[in-house]
Structure formats: structure tokens, C-alpha cells
Specification:
Helix content: 25-40%
Shape: globular
Largest sheet: 7 strands, mixed
InterPro entries: NXPE4_C
Structural class: alpha/beta
CATH topology: Rossmann fold
Organism: Sinocyclocheilus anshuiensis
Radius of gyration: 18 Å
Distance between the termini: 22 Å
Number of helices: 7
Strand content: 15-25%
Protein name: NXPE C-terminal domain-containing protein
Number of strands: 11
Strand order of the largest sheet: 6-7-8-5-9-10-11
Pfam families: NXPE4_C (PF24536)
Domain NXPE C-terminal: 37-258
CATH architecture: 3-Layer(aba) Sandwich
């Protein structure tokens, strides 16, 4: 491997490792080349619109968490051919949201996690805890479950976070027990450029560590670490990464759903 340091990133040759569960994230985890993320974790692919549709054919995707997974929903909505959002008569930012594509039988859901949650407008009856949502998913090879659980927890003690993650862990274990072919992906928290004591990236990194350690021993769970993807790009760090970063996150996610 040839490695050259430039700015905030290391530039090196990529990897041919198949994207799967159980992989560790090195430092550096990859680099951007012409706005394309080259991962050192596994062989991430470049999906055009047609390949996205082919990858998600006959899949039900459950995106759970906060507005960063909603960004994934919105990206897929715009880029998967003929994927159309259904009108569920819910707020566009608070959800829940659903999009379908009938020809290839694709269904994508997005739902925010339960309180505490900081959204401007939301129906309380539509607020479900991630653990409860996972308990209601039958699972199987057609099901893809993605969740993130970080951004709205930076105002609360670490012990409170551990307690909630433990409940999610229990639900994931039960899901994989009844349907081991289900794809389960944890999207890590991302950098936000926050430096104050109330919303610091340092605290989010601690939450990332807790989440990763609590799921480390569960076979079949994929931990998709986007921390370096959001800190390494030339765009200013934001809790809501720019479109080019979201695009690379989604293509990395699809590389785990349809690995080569």
C-alpha cells in the first residue's frame, strides 16, 4: 500500500475486501478522490440509478432514527428510478415517511426514534422507540433494517444512553434469532463541527464507542462508521452532511446490502 498524507486525509490504495459484518474501521478509514469515497474497510461500489434499483429489488428498507437517516430516504427517493413517496398525511420533516416502487417491489420507510427528540412539528402518536419498531418487523432476506441513535442524545447522560441502547440490542438479538437472514445496519453518528460543552463531537464519539461495543459480539450486525466520511471532506462539518457526503454514505450502505 502506498500512503501519502495531504491535508486532513490519507491517500492510499483501496481494498478488495467484501463488505460484510464483522469488519473493523481503520484510521484512516478511506479518502475522497474527486468526491468519491475510497474505503479501506471494504470494497464500496459506485451505484448509478439503475444499479440502485436492481440492488433494492424486492427489498423492504426500514430507516429508523433521526434526520440523518431521513437524508438517506430523500436521496433514495430522488435517485432510485420510479420510487415515489406516498402521502401519509404526516409532516415532511417529522414523518413517518414511505416510498414505493411497484415494478421492482421496493418499499422504503423512514421513522424518527422516540423521545427525547427535537423536531419542530410531530404527531406524538407517530413516535415509536427504535426497539419497539424492530420488535414489529418480521424480517427475512428481503428486509433491511438501518438505525442511528446519536444526534438527539448529546444532551443526556451516558448512563441514560446505555440503558436505551441495551433495549435496542435486545430487540436486534430477537430479530436475528427469528429471521437470521435480515440485514441489520447501524449507522454511526457523524461529526457536526460542534465544539461547545453541550453538543460536542467528543461526546458523540463516546456514544459511537458505546454503540459499537454493545453490538460487537452480535453476528450479522453491520456497523457502518461514517465518522471519518463526514470529517474528511472539504465541505464544512455539519450535523446534516452535504449532498455529496450523503451520496457516498448511501452507496456505502448499498455496498453492504449488495456486496461483490
Amino acid at each position: 500500500m502506498i500512503t501519502v498524507f495531504s491535508g486532513k486525509c490519507f491517500f492510499a490504495l483501496g481494498t478488495t475486501e467484501r463488505c460484510r459484518s464483522g469488519l473493523t474501521t481503520p484510521v484512516p478509514a478511506g479518502f475522497y478522490l474527486k468526491d468519491i469515497w475510497k474505503s479501506f474497510v471494504c470494497n464500496t461500489q459506485q451505484f448509478n440509478s439503475t444499479r440502485m434499483g436492481d440492488c433494492l429489488k424486492n427489498k423492504i428498507v426500514y430507516l429508523l432514527g433521526d434526520s440523518t437517516t431521513r437524508q438517506w430516504f430523500e436521496y433514495l427517493e430522488k435517485n432510485v428510478p420510479d420510487l415515489k413517496r406516498m402521502d401519509l398525511h404526516t409532516p415532511c420533516t417529522g414523518g413517518p415517511l414511505m416510498a414505493v416502487e411497484l415494478k421492482n417491489n421496493i418499499i422504503i420507510h423512514w421513522r424518527p426514534h422516540g423521545v427525547p427528540l427535537r423536531f419542530s412539528k410531530l404527531l406524538i402518536t407517530n413516535l415509536h422507540y427504535i426497539s419497539n419498531d424492530i420488535d414489529e418487523i418480521a424480517g427475512d432476506s428481503h428486509a433491511v433494517v438501518v438505525f442511528t441513535f446519536f444526534a438527539h442524545r448529546v444532551f443526556h447522560p451516558l448512563t441514560f444512553y446505555v440503558h436505551e441502547v441495551a433495549k435496542i440490542r435486545q430487540s436486534v438479538v430477537a430479530l436475528l434469532s427469528r429471521a437470521p437472514q435480515t440485514t441489520v445496519i447501524i449507522k454511526s453518528g457523524n461529526t457536526a463541527g460542534r465544539k461547545n460543552i453541550f453538543q460536542s463531537d467528543w461526546y458523540t464519539m463516546q456514544l459511537n464507542t458505546v454503540m459499537q461495543e454493545m453490538f460487537r459480539d452480535i453476528n450479522g450486525v453491520i456497523y457502518l462508521d461514517v465518522w471519518q466520511m463526514t470529517s474528511c471532506h472539504y465541505l464544512r462539518e455539519s450535523i446534516h452532511p452535504g449532498p455529496v457526503i450523503v451520496a457516498n454514505e448511501v452507496k456505502t450502505f448499498l455496498s453492504y446490502v449488495c456486496p461483490v
